[in-house]
C-alpha cells in the first residue's frame, strides 16, 4: 500500500485487488481515513469507529465540504468517552462511498467513472476493506470496534468474521438484518433518485446531478431517524411564512407551510452538497442485503460462534422505531447462546434513531465505561 495525502483527506491504496462477496475483485481500491490520538508502542490501543449510511471519516474533525464539526465530536476527542489522549482512533470512509474511498464516482481502469458499472457490494465487503487498512497500518488486534446504525452493522460483522482482531465490540442502535419496512423505506429513496431525469441511468458525472431525487431520498430517510414525540415537540403543526424561494405550500396558492416541511427540505437540499446519488443507491442496497443469520446458514448464534472471547456491549433507544430494542435483543440472545460476554442496555431518549448522535449523557457513560 501507499499513502496519499490531499487537501481534504488521506487515503491508503490497496496493493492487492479486494475480493468481494459477489465473486468479483476490485483493483486499485482506495480507503480514505482519519486518525486521532497516538498509537502506543505496543500497538494495542487502537479503536476503529465505523460510520453510518451518510457519515464519513471525519468523526471528530471539521468536514472539508460543509465546514461543520465532526459527526461524533461529542464522543471522540481529548477527555471524551472515546478519549484520544488514551486511544488511537481510526475512522475510514466505507467502500462505495464518496468521500475519498473507492465508489461509483471513482475512475475505473478505462479512465471513465465507474457509475453503475461499480460492482455490487455488501457490508462485509466494507469491513473487509477496513481490515486491509488495519493491516496496512500495522495494527493486529484492536482495543475496540464501535459503531451506530450502519456502523453498528459493521461492528457486528467485524465480530462475526474477524473476532480475533478486536477485544471489544460496541454496537449502538443497530440490527443484525433489515426488516421489510427498512427495505421499503430505502426503496422509496432509490426510486426517487432513479426517477430524477438527471440521474440518466447513473451516468450524470460531468453534467447535472440528480439533486432533486437525492434530496427526496434524504427527506424520506430522515423521517425514519426521528421519533413522533420528537417531531411533535419540535414542530407540532406550527406554520411559518414562505420566503426561502423553495417549492412548497406557496406554489399551491398558500403563503405559509408547516415548519416540519421546511426542516425536511433543508435536510434534503443540504445533503446533496456532500453526497453522491449513486453511492446512496449502492450503500442502501448493501444495508438491505445485510443478514448475519443468513451468512451463518440461517442461525444468528452461529454467526458469533468464534467470538466467545470478545466482550460485547449493545445499546438501543426506547424511541428508535427504525432499529428497535427487539432487534437488539435478538443479537443479545444469539451472543448468550454462544456464551459470549455481553451487556445490554435500553436508554430513554426523545430523539428516535438519531439519539446515538445527539446529547444523551447516559450513552456517554455507557461508552466511557465499556471502552475503559
TrEMBL record:
InterPro entries in alphabetical order: AB_hydrolase_1, AB_hydrolase_fold, HAT_MetX-like
Catalytically driven reaction(s): L-homoserine + acetyl-CoA = O-acetyl-L-homoserine + CoA
Enzyme Commission number(s): 2.3.1.31
GO annotation, biological process: homoserine metabolic process; methionine biosynthetic process
Residue ranges constituting the AB hydrolase-1 domain according to the UniProt record: 46-357
Active site as annotated: 149 (nucleophile), 320, 353
GO molecular function (one): homoserine O-acetyltransferase activity
Subunit record text: Homodimer.
Cited function: Transfers an acetyl group from acetyl-CoA to L-homoserine, forming acetyl-L-homoserine.
PANTHER family: HOMOSERINE O-ACETYLTRANSFERASE
Name by which UniProt lists this protein: Homoserine O-acetyltransferase
Amino acid at each position: 500500500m501507499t499513502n496519499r495525502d490531499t487537501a481534504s483527506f488521506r487515503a491508503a491504496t490497496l496493493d492487492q485487488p479486494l475480493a468481494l462477496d459477489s465473486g468479483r475483485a476490485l483493483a486499485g481500491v482506495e480507503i480514505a481515513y482519519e486518525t486521532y490520538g497516538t498509537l502506543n508502542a505496543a500497538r494495542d490501543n487502537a479503536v476503529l469507529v465505523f460510520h453510518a449510511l451518510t457519515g464519513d471519516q471525519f468523526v471528530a474533525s471539521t468536514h472539508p465540504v460543509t465546514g461543520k464539526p465532526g459527526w461524533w465530536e461529542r464522543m471522540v476527542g481529548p477527555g471524551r468517552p472515546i478519549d484520544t489522549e488514551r486511544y488511537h482512533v481510526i475512522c475510514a470512509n466505507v467502500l462505495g462511498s464518496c468521500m475519498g474511498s473507492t465508489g461509483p464516482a471513482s475512475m475505473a481502469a478505462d479512465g471513465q467513472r465507474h457509475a453503475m458499472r461499480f460492482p455490487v457490494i455488501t457490508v462485509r465487503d466494507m469491513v473487509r476493506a477496513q481490515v486491509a487498512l488495519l493491516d496496512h497500518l500495522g495494527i493486529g488486534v484492536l482495543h475496540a470496534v464501535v459503531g451506530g446504525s450502519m456502523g453498528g452493522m459493521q461492528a457486528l460483522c467485524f465480530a462475526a468474521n474477524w473476532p480475533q482482531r478486536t477485544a471489544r465490540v460496541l454496537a449502538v442502535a443497530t440490527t443484525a438484518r433489515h426488516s421489510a419496512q427498512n427495505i421499503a423505506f430505502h426503496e422509496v429513496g432509490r426510486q426517487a433518485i432513479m426517477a430524477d431525469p438527471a440521474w440518466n441511468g447513473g451516468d450524470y458525472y460531468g453534467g447535472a446531478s440528480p439533486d432533486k431525487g437525492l434530496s427526496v431520498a434524504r427527506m424520506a430517510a430522515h423521517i425514519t431517524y426521528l421519533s413522533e414525540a420528537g417531531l411533535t415537540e419540535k414542530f407540532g403543526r406550527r406554520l411559518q411564512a414562505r420566503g426561502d424561494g423553495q417549492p412548497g405550500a406557496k406554489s399551491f396558492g398558500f403563503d405559509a407551510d408547516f415548519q416540519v416541511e421546511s426542516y425536511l427540505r433543508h435536510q434534503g437540499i443540504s445533503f446533496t452538497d456532500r453526497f453522491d446519488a449513486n453511492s446512496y443507491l449502492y450503500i442502501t442496497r448493501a444495508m438491505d442485503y445485510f443478514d448475519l443469520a443468513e451468512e451463518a446458514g440461517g442461525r444468528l448464534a452461529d454467526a458469533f460462534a468464534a467470538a466467545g472471547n470478545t466482550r460485547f456491549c449493545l445499546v438501543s433507544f426506547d424511541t428508535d422505531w427504525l432499529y428497535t430494542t427487539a432487534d437488539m435483543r435478538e443479537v443479545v440472545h444469539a451472543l448468550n447462546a454462544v456464551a459470549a460476554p455481553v451487556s445490554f442496555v435500553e436508554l430513554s431518549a426523545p430523539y428516535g434513531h438519531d439519539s446515538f448522535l445527539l446529547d444523551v449523557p447516559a450513552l456517554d457513560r455507557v461508552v466511557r465505561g465499556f471502552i475503559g
